[in-house]
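Hi support team,

I submitted a single chain yesterday and got back a structure, but I'm not sure I'm reading the token output correctly. Could someone confirm the output below corresponds to the sequence I sent? I've pasted both exactly as they appear in my results page.

Thanks,
R.
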Amino acid sequence: MRIEHGDLHSGEPEHGGRWLQTTPEWCSELIDAKPYLIEQDYSKYTDDQQAEWGELVERRMSQLRRWACHEYLEGWEALNLSGAQIPFYPEISERMHQRTGWRAQPVSGFMPERAFFEMLKNRLFPVTTWLRGRDSMDYIPEPDMLHDALGHLPMFGDQRFADAMQEYGRVCHAMEEEKLEVMGRLYWYTFEFGLIRQQGEVRVYGSGVASSHKECTNVLSGGCEIVDFSVERVLNTSVKVDQIHKRLFAINSFDQILPAVGEAWTMLHRQ
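Hi R., thanks for writing in. Yes, this is the structure output for that exact sequence:
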């Protein structure tokens, strides 16, 4: 989740980005998120970075072709994502919009909670423009293009997932700040580290599992307890961002996530 506060306009944006000169029409209603918007500067990527992207993608897709859920793999193809070149967000964003009404919008880095939720409720997913180095191919503490483009974006080809993400943003944008930490557990254990049961097997759909060889292998090798999804269980499971997961949750259908957002809101407002 991009909920940490970043330095606003402290020099140049991350590699591969530049500050917006003109605000896109689809961002015109943003207020809190507007100062964090950038555009991708594709000319900044080197040949070595293009090659590195291909290596990273092949390392992950060799596992995901077998273990990602059907919707993830369909979205990967529909958005024309590949290891052949670093994602060009304007084209991917247009394909997303045609399928589910969402767009991928580059941002300068970590965002305040309110700005992040504002983007989600407006069907804009914030994406980074920089790529991890070869010395940290499996894990980095902050999101990069592998996490965002390979991890998150394929699932925006599925309308149920996309609608649930928008509702999560809408609800959280209006929620009292003191309730957001617990509500964030729902995001973490679905959109970030969610699993799904399909055809008698556990498959991957959360971005944190999809983009991490270590997390994904941990799930597939039995190193992680897989619990049937329940909103109450999720909200009572704390998040530890610096450890490999020992427990994750599996849904049976993406139809479960949208009503789960409303159920979580109701539970938190009964307290």
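A quick pointer for reading it: The domain at 17-270 is CATH 1.10.800.10 (Phenylalanine Hydroxylase). Let us know if anything else looks off.

Best,
Support desk
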